[in-house]
Amino acid sequence: MSKRGEVSELVSSLGWLEEDMSSQDGEGGLEMGGRYSLGPEGLGSIGQGSEDIEDQEEEDIYNDGDEEAGMDAENEAPKRRGPKKKKMTRARQERFKARRSKANARERSRMHGLNDALEVLRKVMPCYSKTQKLSKIETLRLAHNYIWALSEVLESGQSPESHGFIEMLCKGLSQPTSNLVAGCLQLGPSAPLMINKLDEKPCGALGVGGGVGGQPCGHQPLSGHYPSTGLPSPPYGSLEASHLLHMKSFKGVPYEQHPSPKDCSSNGTPPYDGPLTPPLSISSNFILKQEPSPHEAERNYPSHYLSSLPHYPPSSLGGLPGPQGYLFQASRYELPLDIQAFDSFPPPHMIASQMGTIYSE
DNA sequence: TAGGCCATCTGGTCCT
DNA sequence: AGGACCAGATGGCCTA
Question: Where is the composition biased (Acidic residues) (predicted)?
Fold first, then answer.
């Protein structure tokens, strides 16, 4: 049976609803095949005004449960088996509505909390824009890549100015997101080709990159293998952001001995032990490159790519590395105005305060 | 218009 | 019993 059919059946199995629908002569009580025609509080907005139900304060009994029997026969008495259910009385209906309404409110609140946390996460990503907000899935991907890339910096001493760093950041991101990151990081000449190359790779079979969430093909899986790049697999599952920010605690400890995310579940989350240490000299991520000649620029940056970037900055006009320089560049080179240095690479104290907010919640 | 993303509702499951 | 969490379903909005 199709999901829709299941839902229809489930809904129609509610005695009071069945009653209500029949009382409305099939007119709009329930809009099957589409979203239920419910009010803001869902079921709470329907089922009113049935005098029949109002009169049925006694508990009427009917059978329920057999999917094959009876649901399709309108006029015949349904042959139902299984546990008997009490029909919805008015009082029961009211309780149900109240409970459902409360549950809906809680769920909304929960999702808002989740979205708030995602927004906090967006703000500590290497690229933050209020106008070009990263989608949820891209935020998570970039966060994963960011942690991965930073941990590589710590682990192998790789320069955050290297193309490998950028490559890791853009791994598996969609083209628009890669472009946004590239715009934020002021990529060097060869990077766009690398990004395009990444996005041309077929979807992996593992992880969430293979089109989950409706993402177009070309995304790499976030977990599992990162084929053909020669890069190590991300330390996914062996290093988390708090570890990165508290690297002193794990100095000299191989990744394998770091606490796994399992150890940080809701039951076993290590306590947040005060302000975070500065994670990295993240200002070094503001990469200043030699300005390519027009020929080089066209060769390395296909025109279609250049046009997709916010603006490719000539380094001769580039500012100082670090937040100030980035601010300068952002205004000079027409990056989205709301992409600003502190939003893109918050200074350590801001990261600490934001993380503190998260931990304290 | 199709596809991506999102908010919301909903019922199920697990836990306290 | 009630809350938290989750996944499925659905419709709205936006964009290419």
Answer: 51-75
Give me the phi and psi of A22, to 5 degrees please: -65, -30
Residue for token pair 């967006």: A122
- Using the structure, give the distance in angstroms from the CA atom of A176 to the C1' atom of B4, rounded to a whole number: 13
For strand B, the positions having any atom within 7 A of a protein Cβ are 3-12
State how far the Cα of A59 lies from the Cα of A264, in Å rounded to an integer.
49
What is the pLDDT of chain A when averaged over all its residues?
47
Q: What does the alpha-carbon distance between residue A80 and residue A84 come to, in Å, rounded to a whole number? A: 9
Which structure tokens are listed for A260?
A: 């796994």
Give the 3-state secondary structure of A159-189.
CCCCHHHHHHHHCCCCHHHHHHHHHHHCCCC
Residue A38, nucleotide of least CA–C1' distance:
B9
A59-101, pLDDT tens digit by residue?
A: 333 333 333 333 333 333 334 444 445 566 777 778 888 888 8
- For C11, nearest residue by CA–C1' is A35
pTM of the model: 0.47
pLDDT at A43: 36
Distance CA A90, CA A77 (A): 24
The helix (run of H) or strand (run of E) holding residue A63 is: strand A61-63
Strand C contacted by A133 CB (< 7 A): no
Beta strands in A218-297 (DSSP E): none
A44 is written with which tokens?
């709470």
A167-192: b (≥16 Cβ within 10 Å) or e = bbbbbbbbbebbbbbbbbbbbbbbbb
Does nucleic acid strand C have an atom less than 7 angstroms from the CB of A35? yes
Separation of alpha carbons A288 and A324, rounded Å? 13
**Closest CA to C2 C1' — which residue?**
A99
Spatial CA neighbour of A230 closest among A150, A171, A178: A171
- Nearest nucleotide to the CA of A45, by C1', is B9
Question: Is the pLDDT reported for residue A332 higher than 50?
Answer: no
